[in-house]
Every structure is written in structure tokens, then in C-alpha cells.
């Protein structure tokens, strides 16, 4: 019972830490005069992916590398099926902006690179450095894209989307510092509690570590994205949910697995290679269909995505 209690506490601490880090980083960015678009696509996306980074790195360093890969793959699947599915039940979700198309193509390409690395695993330092290079290219593209957005309408839309996503932005330096410190303290604490208890639960029930990473840990670390998506849906700003998912999935692969593999080689289970990574690819291709096919996620499709995620969890545990 203690392991289950510590696991639950760890997830709660991770969510608090991730949200605190996001708000603190955004407040700091606005203080420094950074573009709202840059904040939304980089700092906010990275902030909501911070729990995945800490957990994956902690797992790999503690010898549970399969948990790290499972966390990234499982989180990317959960971000699409669950984080887009649940908010769509509240209100229809659409994202048809042309600016998103290049980013989605980049995400598909990055996903394919990641799949090749997993197929020929373990993911080593050279693989990690390649992913970090991809991250740098992505950030450069977003910076140039932000520079091109000079029209007043585009700037106002980006600012509105951003504020709706993260809520009230702190302005006082003391508040910003407090949020940043809370995030930096809570994230490693929550990661330590979650990983240690997850590994203990896996050993007690004889469940493979990659399955734990693909399911319970992946859902827990996707809670910040899910909360953001629900908030955006309730406020009628549905494009925020899609942007948050795309940015988070990019960071999950390029930053989280890039940093983790650079520090220590990460093994990949055959379960992920034969099954889970293909579900991740299918989910990514669904994302790219939204702007190109002018697809709207209706309530019915939202239930379908959520149900598909439930089936995925069942197959992951059974197979």
C-alpha cells in the first residue's frame, strides 16, 4: 500500500511542479519581453513536458531505461488520444491554421527518426545528440516564424491564445521566483517518488517496466496537457489544445529522449518496437490530418478517441 500511496503523491507533486514551472517561466519570459508565440510553442510546451523529462532521466539513470522510452511513447499517444479526445467531448476542436502545417511535418519526420532509433536500439549518445540537433532546428524555425508574424492581428491572436492557455500570468518578481523554485523542487521530488514506486509496483506484480511507463506513468505525466486542453475547451479556445499537444510531443522526443540518451544509453523493449511505436505514428498522422483535411474533432470523435485510448491501454496490458 505504501508504494501505491507514494506513486499517487508523486504524480500530484509532478503536476503541481509542472504547472508552477510553466507559470513561472511564462512570467519571466514576459518580463524579458519574449514573443508570446515563442513562449507558447517553446517554454509552455517544454514546461508541460517537464515531468516526462525528469521521470525519463531519473528512470534511465536508475537502470530502468525501458520505463523512460515507454514514458515518452506512451505520453505522445496519450497526448493525442486522451488530451484531444476529452476536451472535444466538451466542445468541438479544430486547428486549421496554415502555420501549423510546417510544424506538423517536422513532428512526423522527427517521429520517423525516433522510430528508426528504437528499431535499431538501444538509443545511444549519438542518437540523443541527433535528437537535440533536431530540437535546435525546430527552435530556430519557430523563432524565424515568430519574426515573420508582423501583422497586428496575428500578434493579438497569439497573445490571446497564450493567455487563455496558461491563465493569469504572474507579474511580480517575487511570485515568479516562487513559482520557478516550486517547480524546480517539486519536479525532481515527484519524479523520484513516481519512478521508485512504479518500479516497485512493477516488480511486485511482475509487470514489465515498459508497460508501466506506457500506461500509468504516461497518463500521470500527461495531466498538465490534459488540464490545459480542458481549460481551453471550456473557454472556447480550442486551437490551444492542439498547439499544446504538438509542441509537447515534439519536446517529448527531441528534448526528453535527446537529453536522456545523451546521458545514458536507453534500451528499447520489443513490445514497443512491434506495437506501441506504430500507435504513436498513427496518432501523429491523425494530427497532421487536422489542418490539411480541415478536420474538426466533434463530440462523437472525441468519444471515439477516448475509447481508442482505453482499448490501447487494454491491449498494452494484455499483449
Brief overview, please?
With 319 residues, the chain is an all-alpha fold. It is built from 14 helices and 2 strands.
CATH class: Mainly Alpha
Number of strands: 2
Structural class: mainly alpha
* Average of pLDDT: 80
Strand content: under 5%
Q: For this structure, what is the CATH homologous superfamily?
A: NCX, central ion-binding region
Q: Could you please say which CATH topology applies here?
A: A middle domain of Talin 1
- Tell me which CATH architecture applies here: Up-down Bundle
Number of helices: 14
Give the overall form. globular
Distance N terminus to C terminus? 26 Å
Low-confidence stretches: 161-167
- Main-sheet strand order equals 1-2
Description:
The protein has helices at 2-31, 36-48, 50-61, 65-81, 85-90, 99-119, 125-148, 152-166, 173-205, 209-221, 223-234, 239-263, 270-292, 299-318, and strands spanning 93-94, 296-297. A two-stranded antiparallel sheet has the order 1-2. α4 crosses α10 and α6 (99-119) packs antiparallel against α7 (125-148). The chain is globular. The chain contains 14 helices and two strands. By secondary structure, the chain is mainly alpha-helical. Helices cover 83% and strands 1% of the residues. The protein has one domain: A middle domain of Talin 1.
Amino acid at each position: 500500500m505504501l508504494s501505491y500511496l507514494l506513486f499517487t503523491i508523486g504524480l500530484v507533486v509532478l503536476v503541481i511542479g509542472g504547472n508552477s514551472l510553466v507559470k513561472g517561466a511564462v512570467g519571466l519570459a514576459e518580463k524579458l519581453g519574449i514573443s508570446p508565440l515563442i513562449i507558447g510553442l517553446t517554454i509552455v510546451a517544454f514546461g508541460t513536458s517537464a515531468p516526462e523529462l525528469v521521470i525519463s532521466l531519473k528512470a534511465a539513470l536508475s537502470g530502468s531505461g525501458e520505463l523512460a522510452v515507454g514514458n515518452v511513447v506512451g505520453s505522445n499517444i496519450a497526448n493525442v488520444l486522451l488530451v484531444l479526445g476529452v476536451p472535444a467531448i466538451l466542445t468541438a476542436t479544430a486547428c486549421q491554421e496554415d502555420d501549423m502545417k510546417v510544424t506538423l511535418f517536422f513532428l512526423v519526420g522527427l517521429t520517423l527518426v525516433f522510430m528508426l532509433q528504437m528499431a535499431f536500439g538501444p538509443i545511444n549518445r549519438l542518437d540523443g545528440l541527433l535528437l537535440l540537433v533536431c530540437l535546435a532546428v525546430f527552435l530556430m524555425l519557430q523563432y524565424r516564424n515568430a519574426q515573420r508574424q508582423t501583422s497586428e492581428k496575428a500578434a493579438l491572436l497569439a497573445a490571446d491564445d497564450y493567455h487563455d492557455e496558461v491563465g493569469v500570468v504572474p507579474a511580480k518578481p517575487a511570485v515568479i521566483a516562487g513559482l520557478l523554485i516550486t517547480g524546480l523542487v517539486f519536479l525532481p521530488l515527484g519524479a523520484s517518488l513516481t519512478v521508485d514506486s512504479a518500479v516497485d509496483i512493477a516488480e511486485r506484480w511482475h509487470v514489465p517496466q515498459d508497460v508501466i511507463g506506457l500506461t500509468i506513468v504516461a497518463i500521470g505525466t500527461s495531466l498538465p496537457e490534459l488540464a490545459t486542453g480542458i481549460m481551453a475547451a471550456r473557454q472556447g479556445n480550442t486551437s490551444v489544445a492542439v498547439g499544446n499537444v504538438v509542441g509537447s510531443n515534439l519536446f517529448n522526443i527531441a528534448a526528453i529522449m535527446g537529453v536522456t540518451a545523451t546521458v545514458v544509453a536507453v534500451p528499447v523493449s520489443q513490445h514497443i518496437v512491434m506495437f506501441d511505436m506504430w500507435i504513436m505514428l498513427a496518432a501523429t498522422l491523425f494530427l497532421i490530418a487536422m489542418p490539411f483535411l480541415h478536420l474538426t474533432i466533434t463530440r462523437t470523435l472525441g468519444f471515439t478517441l477516448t475509447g481508442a485510448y482505453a482499448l490501447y491501454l487494454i491491449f498494452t496490458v494484455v499483449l
